[in-house]
């Protein structure tokens, strides 16, 4: 039985804790975070008694096999580095660190220490996304030629005029680092290595700390696929996440509306018109959990099994560092 500690009282509490707490072959034995009523009441509900304010104290006092972290990137780097030195396996959030240098350092240290390391890129774990990957790998509509992304929503911090690291580029925020890190990972998941990128950033006074609220990218991939990607986290009234795959003999469209991670659909078009429509509706969430929990659980299960078998799994710190490198390349353009 793997003994796991959670670090973070935001997504760590409402995302990672319920995911790991319901994962087989592991037991959450402690959590570190702000001791709010929300945290204490949920821990009381699930019988978790060991609550810490200091992550160092938790690492020293608890004989942990693994930790799952959801804190700001700079703090995650510090916590992960200390955990690695203690031989503790790590499940981290994205972005992995403040910059590529830190992210790559964590990857190298983790490899040298031979710990299991994973990062929480959730979208390719969704059933509909995996179905599209299978279609592309089998060339269901011929070779992929072009991929485009349209991702529009209004972030919680902007909607509620919150000053946080998520709108501060120096702390690892901004639309590119905080949200589009997901997209940089899944674009390479689908279309292969990104070779070249041109970017345009957009801004809004509603982003209190000045971080960009929009990014538009022109992409070229190693395998001669071209791409266009757009994200806006200051989109009033519009919430959509859509990927369009233009292939030699048709189109595959993957998308959803009014949800972060639920109810994706797939539409296909052949040379004569529409080919098929499929929807992937999510099961009712009886516990009123965050919709991402069931997806994180897929990753947490893989992580736990990897720790117990001592076999590294993906997505790992290697992929986290790769995304961090792409972020720095885009910001330098």
Protein topology:
Layout: E1 2-7, H1 11-21, E2 26-32, H2 37-46, E3 51-52, H3 55-61, E4 66-69, H4 73-85, E5 89-92, H5 100-113, E6 117-119, H6 127-137, E7 144-152, H7 156-159, H8 175-191, E8 194-202, E9 214-221, E10 226-232, E11 240-247, E12 250-257, E13 264-270, E14 273-280, H9 293-309, H10 317-332
Parallel strand pairs: 1-2, 1-4, 2-3, 4-5, 5-6, 7-10
Antiparallel strand pairs: 7-11, 8-9, 9-10, 11-12, 12-13, 13-14
CATH domain class of the largest domain: Alpha Beta
The N- to C-terminal Cα distance equals 47 Å
**Mean pLDDT over the residues:** 95
| Structural class category | alpha/beta
Q: List segments where confidence is low: pLDDT < 50 over at least 5 consecutive residues.
A: none
Q: Helicity level, as a percent range?
A: 25-40%
The number of helical runs is 10
For the record, the count of structural domains works out to 2
Roughly how many Å is the radius of gyration? 20 Å
Element order: H for helix, E for strand: EHEHEHEHEHEHEHHEEEEEEEHH
* CATH level-4 homologous superfamily of the largest domain: Dihydrodipicolinate Reductase, domain 2
Main beta sheet: 8 strands, mixed
Order of strands, main sheet, comes to 8-9-10-7-11-12-13-14
Q: Quickly give the CATH architecture of the largest domain.
A: 2-Layer Sandwich
| CATH topology tier name of the largest domain | Dihydrodipicolinate Reductase, domain 2
Q: Please tally the β strands and state the result.
A: 14
**CA-based shape:** globular
How much strand content do the residues show?
Answer: 25-35%
């Amino acid at each position: 039985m793997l003994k796991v500690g959670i670090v973070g009282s935001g997504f760590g509490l409402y995302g990672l804790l319920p995911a790991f707490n319901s994962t087989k072959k592991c037991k959450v034995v402690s959590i570190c975070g702000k001791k709010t009523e929300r945290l204490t009441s949920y821990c009381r509900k699930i019988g978790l008694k060991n609550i810490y304010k200091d992550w160092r104290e938790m690492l020293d006092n608890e004989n942990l096999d693994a930790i799952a972290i959801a804190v700001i990137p700079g703090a995650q780097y510090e916590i992960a580095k200390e955990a690695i030195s203690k031989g503790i396996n790590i499940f981290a959030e994205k972005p992995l660190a403040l910059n590529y240098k830190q992210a790559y350092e964590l990857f190298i240290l983790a490899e040298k220490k031979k710990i299991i390391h994973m990062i929480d890129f959730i979208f390719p774990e969704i059933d509909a996304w995996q179905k599209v990957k299978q279609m592309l790998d089998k060339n269901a509509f011929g070779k992929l030629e072009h991929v485009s992304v349209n991702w529009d929503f209004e972030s919680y911090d902007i909607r509620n005029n919150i000053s946080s690291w998520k709108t501060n580029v120096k702390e690892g925020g901004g639309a590119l680092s905080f949200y589009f890190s997901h997209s940089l990972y899944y674009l390479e998941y689908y279309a292969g290595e990104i070779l070249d990128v041109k970017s345009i950033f957009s801004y809004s006074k509603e982003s209190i700390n000045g971080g960009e609220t929009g990014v538009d990218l022109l992409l070229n991939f190693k395998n001669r696929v071209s791409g266009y990607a757009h994200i806006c986290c200051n989109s009033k009234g519009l919430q959509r996440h859509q990927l369009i795959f233009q292939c030699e003999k048709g189109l595959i469209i993957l998308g959803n509306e009014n949800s972060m991670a639920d109810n994706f659909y797939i539409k296909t078009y052949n040379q004569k018109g529409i080919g098929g429509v499929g929807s992937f509706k999510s099961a009712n969430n009886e516990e009123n959990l965050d919709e991402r929990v069931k997806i994180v659980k897929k990753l947490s299960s893989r992580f736990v099994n990897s720790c117990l078998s001592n076999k590294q799994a993906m997505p790992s710190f290697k992929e986290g560092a790769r995304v961090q490198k792409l972020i720095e390349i885009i910001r330098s353009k």
